[in-house]
Design brief:
This protein is an alpha/beta fold. The radius of gyration is 17 Å and the shape is elongated. The two termini are 14 Å apart. The protein contains 9 helices and 7 strands; from the N terminus they run ββααααβαβαβαβαβα. The strands form 2 sheets. The chain has a 5-stranded parallel β-sheet, sandwiched between helices.
């Protein structure tokens, strides 16, 4: 049976899937590092740490050049600094990936209900969706702090299925990383991946999925209700 048949809902990731937020992360992390007396970090290094939520990002950035004990001691102040700076730059240096608006419109025209599930904190996620003109497409938005567990745990995806009153096999996950694929597999949802995001600095070609598509519009064209 084709896993992309009978689809009635979609769960779509945010950073690296719909919006290129790389330069926002870069500015916020380096502003935080400056406050802590640390040298600036290259964008490529930071992007290797993106995807598992703000706490993990800050931990990884500190552990890059601090001993474990020093990183743990610095973490509370670093997280506070990062969140303050990220709130200031959120969306200012971001851009939509090609085909995002067209893809979302096509999914809606096919009658699918849409949810955005991201590991970004909820307040920042909603703010970014508003700034990018995307909030209107989504029935549901969940952030990394919306539940006790975040992707790759299936909890947020299963909640969306419950919200939509749909079986997991009727709800496709679309993302850019192993987090999205692992959460979808654990929830029982089909999953498509986009190749241009972050995926912790690794190729999505190595991640188990139901297909890799060049744009969100191409994903919409493969999905049938």
């Amino acid at each position: 049976m084709n896993k992309l048949q009978g689809i009635r809902g979609a769960i779509i990731d945010l950073d690296g899937t719909m919006v290129d937020t790389a330069h926002d992360f870069h500015m916020a992390i380096n502003a935080m590092r400056e406050e802590l007396g640390l040298a600036p970090m290259a964008l490529e290094v930071i992007l290797g740490f993106v995807g598992k939520g703000s706490e993990n990002l800050v931990h990884r950035v500190l552990q890059h050049d601090l001993a474990q004990a020093d990183a743990e001691q610095s973490f509370p102040a670093a997280l506070d600094s990062y969140q303050r700076h990220y709130g200031r730059v959120n969306g200012l240096h971001s851009a939509l990936y090609p085909g995002v608006i067209e893809g979302l419109q096509a999914l809606k025209e096919r009658g699918l209900r849409l949810a955005c599930v991201t590991n970004k904190p909820f307040a920042y996620a909603v703010d970014l969706l508003e700034k990018m003109g995307l909030r209107r497409f989504f029935d549901v938005v969940y952030g990394g702090d919306s539940f006790a567990k975040k992707k790759p745990d299936p909890m947020p995806l299963l909640q969306v299925c419950a919200n939509f009153d749909l079986a997991p096999q009727q709800v496709i996950a679309i993302g850019d990383s192993s987090n999205d694929a692992q959460a979808a597999r654990a929830a029982g949802c089909p999953v498509l991946l986009l190749p241009y995001g972050y995926n912790h600095g690794e190729s999505v070609q190595n991640v188990e999925s139901d297909g890799i598509v060049p744009t969100l519009m191409h994903a919409a064209q493969l999905i049938h209700s």
